[in-house]
Structure formats: structure tokens, C-alpha cells
Amino acid sequence: MSNDFELTCYSPPPRATLFDEFLPQVAVPVMGEAQPGDLLVFGHKPGGKPRHLGICTNVGVIWLHPALSLGRVVECRIDSQIRALLLSVWRFKAWA
After folding, report:
1. Is 0.85 surpassed by the pTM of this model?
2. Is 9 a member of any domain?
3. What is the CATH number of the domain that holds 27?
4. Are 84 and 95 a contacting pair, CB within 8 Å?
5. ω before 13 within 30° of 0 (cis)?
6. How many domains does the chain contain in total?
């Protein structure tokens, strides 16, 4: 299996199936606490469809993600409201 792939169908908001198609190619699900470098999948409401992808930068505390409204990537704390939107955690296959 090649590690090269191209996402040509991404647009805001992303298709929920994009996460199902993309993540298993590069990562495996994590059943414990997220570690720095893990991918975090969020919904726009608790239990909703996947809509947002971030990267954990500090165990359980901070995540890095694109903020369309600001036009840049930002680092934010994971508070209780954000944690409620967390749907899954994934680890790159190379690190699993």
C-alpha cells in the first residue's frame, strides 16, 4: 500500500464520509487518552457527524486546528464544551 494519496474532495464543510475514507489510510483508532501528535475528530454537536479535525499538542489540554473565521491555524485549550464534541482519537500508523 502506498503512503501517497491526494484529497481532492475537501471543502468546508467537509463530507462526513471523508473521515471514514481518509483516516484508516494513515491512522488507527486510539482507545485511551490522546497523546501529542494524535488526530482529534470533532462534531459540531455532541454525538454528531465528524466535521472537524485537529491535532493534540499537549496531553488532553491543547489542540491545533484551522480556524476558517480567522484564516489561520490556532492552538486552543480543550475545555469541557470542546471535549463534549470529541468523537474519536486516531494515531498515525507509523507511531502506533
Report:
1. no
2. no
3. 3.90.1720.10
4. no
5. yes
6. 1
Rounded distance between C-alpha atoms, residue 71 and residue 12, angstroms: 13
Residue 76 neighbours by CB under 8 Å, 6+ apart: 62, 63, 65, 82
Segment 39-61, tens digit of pLDDT? 999 888 888 888 888 889 886 66
What's the rounded Cα separation, in Å, for the pair 16 and 22? 11
Please write the tens of the pLDDT for every residue from 10-28: 556 666 677 888 899 999 9
Q: Are 56 and 34 in contact (CB under 8 A)?
A: yes
C-alpha cell at 43: 462534531
CA distance 10 to 65: 15
Residue 56, number of CB atoms within 10 A of its CB: 22
| Encoded amino acid at 62, one letter | I
